[in-house]
Amino acid sequence: MAGLVIAIVVLLLAVVFIALSLKIVPQQQVGVVERLGKFNRLLTPGINLLIPVIDYVRVYHDLRIQQANVPPQTVITKDNVQVQIDTIIFHQVVAPDQATYGISDYVNGVRNITTATLRQIIGKMELDETLSGREKISTDIRLALDEATEKWGVRIERVEVLDIRPPVDIQEAMDKQMKAERNKRAMVLAAEAAKQDMILRAEGDKQSKILKAEGDKEARIREAEGLRQAQELEALGKAKAIQAVAEAEKTRVELLRAAGLDENVLAYRSFEALSEIAKGPANKVFLPVKAVETMGSVGAIGELFKPGKAEG
C-alpha cells in the first residue's frame, strides 16, 4: 500500500515538473526568462523548456503594434488661449529585454513624455497655428518620443492628434467668423460668375460681329472677282471674234490674189457695179480721181460716160 502511495506521489510530482518545465508561447509574443533572478533568455513563440523553480518568466510582451490613449490635455497657446487636445500613440516593442529592464512601465512613460512635449509645443504656437498645425504637432511629439523610447526597446510608429478643442466662446466666435467668410466667399463667387457671364457674352457678340464682317467682306471680294472674270472673258471673246474676222478677210484676200484678181480687175468690177447704179434713177455719179485714172486705162469709162448718163 505504501508503495502505491509513493508511486502516485512520484507520478504527481512528475506531472507537476513537466507542467512547470513546458511553456507554450503564442505567435507575436515573447517571454523574458530570469534564472535565479538574473536575465537568462527570451521565450520565442512555440514550446519552450524551463527548469522549474530555477527559471522564472518575468513578463510576456506582445510584439504587435499597440495603441496608448493619452488623456485629454488642457494646454495654453502662445496667445494665452486654453485648448484641450486629445492624442493617441501607436508603439511597438522591438527589444523585450530593454522594455523589461529599461523602464518599469513604458506605456506610462510614453504618456508622460507626450503630455510634457505637447505643452512645450503648444506654448510656442498661437491659436490659429495650433488649429491648423496638427501635422506639425504630431511630428514634434514623435521626434521627442523617439529620442526617449530608443533606450526602452520601444519604437513609436505613429502619433495622431485626434481633437483640438478651444473654449466655447472662442469656438462660437470662430463659427461666426467661418460663416461670415463662407457668405463672403459665396458673394465673391456669385459676382465673379456674373462678371464671367458678361465677359463671355461680350466676347460672343464681338466674335459674331467679326465673323459677319468677314463674311460680308468675303462676299464682296467674290462678287468683284466674278465681275472681273466676266469682263475678261467678254473682252477675250471680242478679241477672238475680231481676230477671226481678220483671219477671214486675210484668207479672202489671199484667195483673190491666188485667182489673179489684181487692183485693176477689182476697179473694173467696181465700175461695172457703178454702171448698174448709173442705170438707176440717179443721174449723177461722183468718182474719185484715182479711180477715173485707173478706169481710163482699161477703156471702160467710155461706156460709163455716155451722154446723158454721167457728168464729171
Poorly predicted sequence stretches spanning 5 or more consecutive residues = 307-312
Q: What proportion of the residues is helical, as a percent range?
A: 55-70%
Overall CATH architecture of the largest domain: 2-Layer Sandwich
Distance between the termini: 201 Å
Q: Give the number of domains.
A: 3
Order of helices and strands: HEEEEEEEHHHHEHHHH
The CATH superfamily of the largest domain is: Band 7 domain
Overall body shape: elongated
The major sheet is characterized as: 3 strands, antiparallel
Write up this protein:
11% of the residues are buried. The strands form three sheets. The protein has a three-stranded antiparallel β-sheet with strand order 3-2-5. Residues 307-312 have low confidence and may be disordered. The chain is of the alpha+beta class. It has helices at 2-21, 96-101, 106-123, 127-132, 134-149, 168-258, 263-278, 289-298, 301-304, and strands spanning 22-25, 29-35, 38-43, 46-49, 55-62, 66-76, 82-93, 154-165. Helix 3 (106-123) crosses helix 5.
Features:
single chain; 312 residues; alpha+beta; Tetrahydropterin Synthase, Chain A; 3 domains; three-stranded antiparallel β-sheet; 9 helices; 60% helix; disordered C terminus; SPFH/Band 7/PHB domain protein; Band7/mec-2_domain
Write the layout of secondary structure elements.
Blueprint lengths: L1 H20 E4 L3 E7 L2 E6 L2 E4 L5 E8 L3 E11 L5 E12 L2 H6 L4 H18 L3 H6 L1 H16 L4 E12 L2 H91 L4 H16 L10 H10 L2 H4 L8
Antiparallel strand pairs: 1-4, 2-3, 2-5, 6-7, 7-8
Helix pairs in contact: 3-5, 7-8
